[in-house]
Design goal:
about 850 residues; alpha+beta; Jelly Rolls; 11-stranded mixed sheet; 7-stranded mixed sheet
Length: about 850
């Protein structure tokens, strides 16, 4: 039977509101017949229809008559396979404003002058009463803000997003949200919008800079009502709306938390004033993955600290907010502090939050009540509550993260590796908060480019990230500096790093503009993202080339601008100091240039730009040659011996064939000498196991993967980590933080996904599933057996549907099972060299091990 398993518009299966004039439509099919092929597929949108051929099922662009704003379209799909079985599916999507000028104007509180430094403004509340006297056919509210907002109709929150309008490079793009209010309009209605400081106005970045985008909050909204008689009424924000800061939310700040006074009625209403913004962004229908509430977390243990604070342990580190149900007395103040770890004496350890207060303060009214912060989030496992008898309180928490579907899974016979996989996934969730962030708890939570640069391939195995990453990449493009360099955090939002100068391009961090689109392309087959980012990549690589270009002879290809301008082998555990990580930048930066230029060559070829491709190929080859000639002895020995110095050239294939094996042996020696413990920083960590395993040293790779001594991935697991840490030595065997006063002692987060980039190795080698052609049109299933593992199984989401793979070994025989999505092909290689080519279907194979 032929079945359509997914139909999407702009990567959404439902609720798509778009301003895109040519939306991207995709679908996946399945058959219970092995080898079934799709022979016919037709997409119809209104008067337009198109036969889908080739790779069209992973993305067909609407090319019909111009779409009209404020309109619902239906998409029909009819498909047929080679046995004449048919299937059909349909969905609707809606166009947004599509550049219709706003009748509403930006409004604010003209009396509110917010000048205080390093804090966030008091939330502004806007309201407007609406009277309608005719039957309504369709009503939509379009809204956005300077700050973060929530909107209520008659006291009920519209939508389920947190932190709308989301975090973008505000000077370039601002999203608006669309709310279907048709069923809620009663004839006499009140719209209320609360706007907190958020990223645009509130304090952000560890310098706690505020008012980066606007001096105070502002709201732009339009209620568009279509009556059954065909007339349309638009009620926009203007000075007839009222505003006040005198509501129950007294403080809201991304880092500091929220202060809520439930005894307070909202008073002090006065008329709003028009606001002129400092920026003129394109205001576009939401195109990212908004933050929503996901897992509900319950305490697994409750203890009382020596000062009486009641500590709730949620058993898992995550990003989110608490939810309290309580019985209180008017004026009773409850404080909830948050922390990732406890001190040895059982109190909360908040030292590493730095300036982030991460505290919810709630003043009760009388009786039963509920509270949960709405304009802040915290990264925590423990919540410490004071001010209420625990018997009067029910507390839970909810994980907040971007609405991305988890489409991958990995599991194997080693429970510690399974925990590592869980930790990687939780660190991803905790750091996908509208943008890819570094950490969710301290005063950063910023879009550090280097972190997602190394983590994207792993992230894409676990989650469908098209909208999430495409949105962020739009900002990467927008934030590129005229010099070609990229800010180290995107959106930059007031950040300036004293040490590095992004104008000059920063290896492995700026590389995100090449590597993240590439990872997305590999996972989804979407070549449009490469096309969109190509000019950005070119400018960036040109900048890197420029900065590498000082010196003579082969030195012209060694990127050796002063180390302080780089992050180098960031957080490498084999040397303790930041300056030592940076000191390795000659190696990391040169390898970065080889990689970005080489990748750009491939991208240029794909886009039909052969001349460009040839130039980038030459550049990449020259850089590789310079690395081997100048940074190694030419025979596979690095001049400065550290793991990353070998990992990068091995993984990136920079060594000439005749020295590769020697270089790999030298890496193995280093690893052995280090008792199979990890020594790499951000740039080397994702690749070290590939560098070892793919050069014939799978045993060494497995010993490192399964090592439980510090520093190693499983050390963290062994001492109780529930997420991936920033520093390998974040806690010692006794649960204490051993990091001394080396200048980085305040840089300790227990929820940083970068070193979780090892996840790709679990999928690609241990499970054995790896794309050969983008989007898994052709993929490999080649499990790498080792480390005493006896089984692995997992799923990999592809645009064609789900790959299911599993293998287990019993009595020297491997039984492997694979589900190949219809429309893809798979080359299976089992131990002993058993090879087979498979088309769509489910198969079981065996091999002697
Ligand atoms: C962040 C990182 C980031 C790094 C770069 C840190 O403070 O948390 O993950 O990439 O700085 O220097």
């Amino acid at each position: 039977m032929l079945e359509i398993t997914r139909l999407t518009v702009e990567h959404l299966t439902a609720d798509c509101v778009t301003d895109c004039p040519a939306p991207h439509i995709a679908f996946a099919v399945r058959s219970d017949r092995n080898g079934a092929q799709l022979t016919d597929a037709e997409l119809t949108v209104g008067d337009w229809s198109a036969k889908v051929t080739g790779d069209g099922q992973t993305g067909t662009t609407y090319k019909g008559p111009a779409l009209l704003p404020f309109t619902t379209y239906s998409v029909q799909l009819a498909a047929k396979d080679d046995a004449d079985e048919t299937a059909a599916a349909s969905m609707t999507f809606e166009t947004g404003r599509m550049e219709t000028p706003w009748k509403g104007q930006w409004i604010t509180d003209g009396d509110y002058h917010f000048t205080e430094a390093k804090v966030s403004p008091v939330p502004m509340v806007f309201r407007r009463e609406i009277t309608t006297d005719k039957p309504i056919a369709r009503a939509r509210l379009y809204a956005t803000a300077m700050g973060i907002y929530e909107v209520e109709l008659n006291g009920k929150k519209l939508g389920d997003r947190y932190f709308a309008p989301g975090f973008t490079s505000y000077k370039s793009y601002l999203q608006y949200q669309t709310y279907d209010v048709t069923p809620f309009m009663t004839g006499h209605d009140t719209l209320t919008a609360t706007v907190a400081g958020g990223w645009a106005v509130g304090s952000f970045v560890f310098t706690r800079k505020n008012r980066v985008t606007a001096d105070r909050q502002a709201l732009l909204a339009e209620l568009r009502i279509e009556y059954e008689d065909g007339s349309v009424e638009v009620i926009g924000t203007d000075s007839s709306w009222q505003v006040t800061e005198d509501g129950p939310i007294r403080m809201a700040d991304i880092y500091d938390g929220e202060t809520y006074d439930a005894t307070k009625e909202t008073t002090g209403w006065h008329n709003a004033a028009p606001e002129t913004l400092k920026i003129t962004p394109a205001i576009t229908a939401e195109y990212g993955a908004p933050v929503k509430a996901h897992e509900v977390m319950h305490p697994v243990a409750v203890t009382t600290a020596k000062d009486g604070e009641v500590i709730y342990d949620f058993g898992q580190n995550f990003a989110g907010v608490i939810r309290m149900k309580l019985n209180g007395k008017a004026g009773q103040v409850i404080t909830v502090r948050h922390a990732e770890i406890l001190n040895p004496d059982g109190t909360l350890n908040t030292t590493f939050l730095r300036t982030a207060k991460a505290t919810a303060t709630y003043t009760c009214r009388d009786g039963e009540q509920e509270y949960s912060p709405r304009f802040s989030y915290m990264g925590f496992r423990y919540a410490g509550v004071k001010g209420i008898d625990p018997k009067e309180l029910e507390i839970e928490a909810v994980a907040l993260y971007s609405d991305v579907a988890q489409h991958g899974g990995f599991h194997c016979s080693d429970e510690m590796l399974n925990k590592l996989q869980s930790n990687i996934t939780w660190s991803a969730k905790s750091n996908f908060v509208d943008i890819p962030t570094d950490c969710p708890q301290r005063d950063e939570r910023m879009g550090w480019t280097g972190d997602i640069n190394v983590f994207a391939p792993t992230a894409l195995y676990n989650f469908e990230l098209s909208r999430f990453l495409e949105k962020w990449l739009r900002d990467v493009k927008a934030e590129q500096l005229p010099t070609g360099g990229l800010p180290n955090t995107v959106p930059v939002q007031g950040y300036g790093f004293p040490a590095t100068m992004p104008e000059m391009a920063v290896d492995w961090w700026g590389d995100a503009c090449v590597n993240v689109p590439w990872a997305l392309y590999e996972a989804t087959g979407n070549v449009d993202i490469l096309r969109a980012m190509y000019p950005t990549m070119q400018k960036y690589v040109k900048a890197c080339r420029f900065w590498a270009g000082f010196g003579i002879g082969k030195h012209r290809y060694i990127w050796h601008t002063p180390a302080v301008l780089h992050f180098g082998d960031w957080v490498a555990p084999d040397v303790p100091k930041m300056s030592q990580w940076q000191g390795r930048s000659k190696y990391t930066a040169t390898a970065s240039l080889c990689n970005t230029s080489g990748r750009l060559a491939k991208i240029a070829r794909l886009l039909g730009k052969d001349e460009d491709a040839a130039q980038y190929e030459t550049l990449s080859a020259k850089v590789a040659d310079a690395y081997c000639s100048i940074l190694t002895d030419g025979s596979g020995k690095a001049k400065d011996e550290f793991q990353t110095a070998y990992v990068l050239p091995l993984y990136l294939n920079m060594f000439p064939e005749n020295v590769k094996a020697k270089a790999a042996e030298n890496l193995v020696k280093l690893v052995e000498k280090n008792d199979y413990k990890i020594g790499t920083g951000f740039p080397g960590t994702p690749y070290i196991l590939f560098a070892l395993a793919d050069s014939g040293h799978a045993d060494t790779a497995f010993k490192m993967l399964l090592n439980t001594q510090c520093p190693s991935w499983l050390y963290e697991v062994r001492v109780g980590a529930t997420t991936v840490w920033e520093r390998w030595d974040g806690l010692d065997e006794n649960g204490e933080c051993p990091i001394g006063d080396d200048g980085t002692d305040q840089m300790i987060s227990y929820n940083h996904y970068a070193s979780g980039a090892v996840g790709a190795f679990l999928y690609r080698r241990v499970l054995g599933v790896e794309p050969v052609l983008p989007g898994y049109k052709l993929f490999k299933f080649a499990p790498l057996v080792g480390g005493g593992l006896t089984e692995a199984d997992g799923t990999v989401g592809t645009p064609y549907g789900e790959i299911k793979a599993a293998w287990h070994i019993e009595n020297g025989e491997m039984t492997a099972e694979i589900t190949v999505p219809m429309g893809t092909a798979c080359t299976v290689t089992l131990p002993g060299g058993v090879e087979q080519n498979l088309s769509g279907g489910s198969y079981t194979l065996t091999a002697r091990v």
